Amino acid sequence: MDSSELAAAAVTSLVTALAGASAAAVVNGGGTALTALVRGGLARSPRGQTALTALEADPGGPGARTEAETVLVGEIDTDPDLRTQLSAQVDFSSRSYRDAVVVTGSRVSRSHISLGPLTVNNTAGGRVLAGVVVVLAVAVLVLALYGVRQLVVGDDTSAGSGASSQEPGHTNGDGGGGGAVLTDAQISLAMPQRSDLPRNWTYFSDSGIQAQPDGCRANGNEYEVDGGIVGKDYKIARFILYACPSEAAARAAPPHMAEWSGFDGEGTTPTKLGLPKLGDESTALAYAGSSDRTIVITIREENTVMQLQYKFLSNSKADEDEALARARMAHDRLKSVQAGTLRP
User: Fold this and answer.
1) How far apart are the C-alpha atoms of 84 and 100, rounded to whole Å?
2) SS3 at position 286
């Protein structure tokens, strides 16, 4: 598959995800890692960020899609690692979709559910009957999948079968809600990498994984643009992840996360930004410093919190859009790890 074909397939995955119609994602979440890669690739350059913003605003717009594909082709041609990762994820998503049940308008295809001999005439009554059959087929499939899960997993309420709510790698069982607690390896993998950022960004520091008094485990890493040369384009992106034993602990985590890294203006009253909601809940705040501002975007996804502290920014809308693009990238990466599509 050449660069243009690969870019077209990758952007198509992002477009269908934005439209909420990804068959592979419905079946097994397979599209999450691919869309994270596409977002990361586009967010590497101002032109790509503009294309991504336009695509999110109008997923069906041919102009936005063409521009996104053009930008992604350039990234693929200059980054062999990105080509390899995209190729693997495109292949994975296409295989997931190949076995999916697809409903398009009045047609049902790729279904392996046997309904026996059935003839539906192309009349108004017949089309209603066809719709009822589709609903029943989906219901049968859901019940079958639930039955298989019960056989494999068993009853979570059985005495002695539940794992501790604070044990990494196991599903929370303390009533606090949330999915599986991330292991140390998953925490490290969920942190944004140098390859997720534009080419002129460099690695700055990594805190390492640290246990917190509230039972959460935290990690943080930091990147800077232009090699630390202070000037118009100098910025720092600090990502902080809190993996908690429950949703309740995750909801209470943001105040503790603020203690990790100081920034100019942190003691001032922040301005709430009107950015789109991400995850189960999110906040976007701007802190005005003496000569610049810091945007802090905090996202909770189940029992894990990802925070971006984006420093040395102007008051421009472009910097707000850039901060949102970085936060989306980090959120997509976290979801990929939680879904198991990005593994250590």
Assistant:
1) 25
2) strand
Pick the closest to residue 70 from 107, 87, 45 (CA basis).
45
Q: Measure the CA–CA gap between 343 and 341, rounded to whole angstroms.
A: 6
d(Cα 3, Cα 9) in Å, to the nearest integer?
Answer: 10
226 C-beta neighbours (distance < 10 Å), count: 14
Residue 335: closest CA among 31, 90, 26: 31
Q: What are phi and psi of 217, to 5 degrees?
A: -120, 130
| 119 close to 130: Cβ distance less than 8 angstroms | no
CA pair distance 135, 129, nearest whole angstrom: 10
- Average pLDDT, rounded, for the chain: 76
Name the β-bridge partners of 236: 224, 311
CA-nearest of 184, 181, 206, 183 to 193 is 206
Provide the pLDDT confidence category of residue 260 given band limits of 50, 70 and 90. low
Write out 4-23 in H/E/C secondary structure. Answer: HHHHHHHHHHHHHHHCCCCH
Give the chain's length. Answer: 344
What residues does 307 pair with on adjacent strands?
A: 240, 298
* CA gap 199, 79 in Å, rounded: 10
Q: Please check whether residue 331 is in contact with residue 241, taking contact to mean a CB–CB distance below 8 angstroms.
A: no
- Among 333, 329, 332, residue whose Cα is nearest residue 43: 329
Q: Where are the beta strands (DSSP E) in the chain?
A: 102-104, 107-109, 201-206, 210-211, 217-225, 236-243, 271-272, 281-288, 293-301, 304-313
Q: Which of 29-33, 101-105, 118-122, 325-329 has the highest mean pLDDT?
A: 325-329
Query: DSSP letters of 205-216?
Result: EE---EE-TTS-
